[in-house]
Amino acid sequence: MATVKLAPVLRSFAGNSKQVSAEGSTLAEVLNDLYKRYPSLKAQIQPEGELSRFVNVYVSDEDVRHRGGLNATVGPNDTVTLLPAMAGGQ
Fold this sequence. Notes:
The protein has about 90 residues and is α+β, with helices and mostly antiparallel strands. It has 2 helices and 5 strands; from the N terminus they run ββααβββ. The chain has helices at about 25-35, 40-45, and strands spanning about 1-5, 20, 55-60, 60-65, 80-85. It has a 5-stranded mixed beta sheet. A hairpin with a 2-residue loop joins strand 3 (about 55-60) and strand 4. The longest helix has 11 residues, at about 25-35. The model has no long low-confidence stretch (mean pLDDT about 95). It comes from Reticulibacter mediterranei.
């Protein structure tokens, strides 16, 4: 099972967990497994089916946009990091 690390802003959608485990061999499968337990996460990560452009997703520290997006391969020892983009400042 892959480890999924959640940014603080997403933890309330996943029972306040810092990280969880999820099964799958692609990012899409891992996320679908995650959504089965935490359905409200889907609106934050994939509001219209595709990955939100406001969420950065990494598999073992590599941006999935460079690894095939939802088709990115995820191994059982990989870490998926979900990190919403932050805006603001002056």
